[in-house]
């Protein structure tokens, strides 16, 4: 299952994501992971959630991002939830047309089913700018 928190920059997506991370920590029967581009959420996210900054690992582009998420899932079979802040920035998607994002999320949907992990992503965009086909396998949270 993939959930999206969508909105333009400055609309409070990260705050909503942090609330979901902290709620998941309390109800999860396994591990919760929060992925961000650079270390910013250290004091906002509950200490029981694993916080990972992708900059440390040189993740750039959707293929590398997918490989990174696959590695995280493969390394810990007890992960129930993965939350990702700043999806476009991690993937270094400057065009932000939504087409590459949609293809990436379709692959992540398959990973979600294989690993039995829920994924939540923040997307800095207007809802109207995203391909409608994405919402066949993604749900909007906010």
What features would you highlight for this structure?
142 residues, alpha/beta, single chain, 4 helices
Could you walk me through the main structural features you see in this protein, from its secondary elements to its overall organization?
- With 142 residues, this protein is α/β, with parallel strands linked by helices.
- It contains 4 helices and 6 strands; from the N terminus they run E-H-E-E-H-E-H-H-E-E.
- The protein has helices at residues 13-27, 62-75, 87-91, 99-115; strands spanning 2-7, 31-36, 50-53, 79-84, 118-124, 138-140.
- The longest helix has 17 residues, at 99-115.
- The radius of gyration is 14 Å and the shape is globular.
- It starts with a strand and ends with a strand.
- The mean pLDDT is 94.
Q: What integer value in Å does the Rg equal?
A: 14 Å
Determine the structural class based on helices, strands and strand pairing: alpha/beta
Strand order in space, largest sheet = 3-2-4-5-1-6
- Overall mean pLDDT stands at 94
Helix fraction bin:
25-40%
Distance between the termini: 16 Å
SSE string, helices as H and strands as E: EHEEHEHHEE
Sheet having the most strands = 6 strands, parallel
Number of strands: 6
Which ranges are low-confidence, i.e. pLDDT below 50, for 5 or more consecutive residues?
none
Strand coverage percent: 15-25%
Q: Helical segment tally? A: 4
Tell the overall outline: globular
Oligomer: single chain
Quick synopsis:
The chain has 142 residues and is an alpha/beta fold. It has helices at residues 13-27, 62-75, 87-91, 99-115; strands spanning 2-7, 31-36, 50-53, 79-84, 118-124, 138-140. It is globular.
